[in-house]
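Hello support,

Our group uses your service weekly, and this is the first time we've seen a run hang past the timeout. The protein is Protein preY, mitochondrial. I'm not sure whether the cause is the sequence or the server load. Input pasted verbatim:
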Amino acid sequence: MLSGARWRLASALRGTRAPPSAVARRCLHASGSRPLADRGKKTEELPRAFDPALLEFLVCPLSKKPLRYEASTNELINEELGIAYPIIDGIPNMIPQAARMTRQSKKQEVEQR
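Update from on-call engineer: The timeout came from a worker crash unrelated to the input. Re-ran successfully.
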């Protein structure tokens, strides 16, 4: 009987594909990948929602302070700095350049008066 590596080599040389191992099947299942037969079927996927339990671990990359989740705008808010980080498909974009300012700076407030 051939070992796993030898079986794959022999299958490759014959042009047949070795059956996926149990580990490979678990990895594909966990990653959400679908078998080739299922890829042709179009399914309506709902956008992933942000899990508020992540707020226990996430902090602002600039101030290292806790963030607040705002469901109406789907953003993570840093009240101290006045910055809002967008959440796209349930994944927070914590890159400072992607954040928007939620309040005007003091200089802008004085100019408007």
